[in-house]
Amino acid sequence: MEQGKHSVQSRWAATMARGKMRTESFGGGKRNYDSRSLDGQAVLLLVVQGLLGIANALSGTFVPVYLWKASQSLALIGWFNLFQATVSGLTFWLAGKWVKEHNKMHCLRLGVALSGAFYLTVLLIGKSAVDYAIPLGVLNGIALGLFWLAYNVVYFEVTEPGNRDRFNGLAGFLGSGAGILAPWISGLIITSQSGERGYTIIFTISVILFAVAVVMSFWLKKREAVGQYEWLYGFRQLTRKDSPWRRVVPAIMAQGVREGVFMFLINLLVYISTNNEQKVGNFSLITSFVALISFWLIGRLLTPQRRKAAMLIGAVMVTAVIVPLFWPLRYGTLLMFGIGSAIFMPLYIIPMTSTVFDMIGQSEESASRREEFIVLREAGLTLGRVIGLSSYLLVLPITKGTPEAVPILLLAVGMFPIIGWLFIRPYLSKVKRPA
Q1: Nearest-angstrom CA–CA distance, 313 and 299
Q2: Mean pLDDT, each 10-residue run in order, the chain (435 residues)
Q3: What is the signed CA dihedral for 346, 312, 388, 173, rounded to 10 degrees?
Q4: What is the C-alpha to C-alpha distance for residues 376 and 125, in angstroms, rounded to an integer?
Q5: Which residues on adjacent β-strands are paired with residue 30?
Q6: C-alpha radius of gyration, the chain, whole number
Q7: In the chain, what are the domains?
Q8: How many CB atoms within 10 Å of residue 432?
């Protein structure tokens, strides 16, 4: 994927006679287009992602809790996440040139290393982290942007439409698997130790896991770099009247609106309602186990032809499961919401992700601009997250953080997956095969 002068055409193998196997060449290796199996590089990429998932599940689950305990400020945590999301999106755009024209594996490794540096910094400064919440958000935003930009490009190049749903199912399976035991173990360690010693232990373990992930990434092949990066190519697609991205980007934004708030607030609400880190770990264990089964099952059964119906069911149900939060906000009602979301979110997220990446790969021209389209995708997610987090920060002072306002806010942002489905539905089952 990096280096080399191969043309775009050489990266797309000719179609063999009908009924025979189709192959394509990316980064020097031929792959089976029609097969749902994953090659060694795809598996290794999943291993690296899995290590990051474990490290983040160990410590990332408790970063909002850590900041809350030191500050008692919901607004501070909102600002931390807003800067993290904004800087991550900006990093995608700026690092796009590095990934397209130079060495994307260096970008991936630097992202992993900076994630480790983020947790190491929190470990070193301790409770003073609340005084540096925004700089810490910036650091983690850069780390996330670098890693996920490179990861998404490599993911596109080691998968095809035939196995993309399977890869995404396995990625979700690994993420859920990391979420089953890691936060539970973290909660057990934190509650069993006095003072902040528990946080010191889990942050240290995370730093070690990030270091292992960097080492493992050296077995990912250096991949060919082709073409020049056009800074505004993806955004110019939005000015073309016939471009499908004019509908797809709003759909991606709708996904981001929900993510921006839900990705940190739910675990924080569990802690606020129980005042117990072990309960946060138990919540993650239960919901992640359910999600693991759901991702595994849906990843095996879902096909492109079923995406439209699956995504509609997922979008409606992840909205419906918010209703229990209108009851007294207790651990039980939060758990009902968490289990419902874990069951139905894969029905929404797998079709969305697979369809977008299938669109990037539907022609030689679009595949040659995969970096620009991945940046465009992240811009949509970032803008959506910023909208969601801005709504959160606006609602807080108006409602003075009253418990009654929380479910209303969650329902308002939680309905956006339905909007996302409405925008992307024409393309869920109509992505062309590469030729």
Answers
A1: 15
A2: 33 27 39 59 88 90 90 92 95 91 89 93 89 95 94 83 78 82 92 86 93 89 77 89 93 96 92 92 92 88 90 97 90 95 95 90 85 92 96 84 79 96 89 49
A3: 0
A4: 36
A5: 25
A6: 21
A7: 36-218+239-427 (1.20.1250.20)
A8: 11
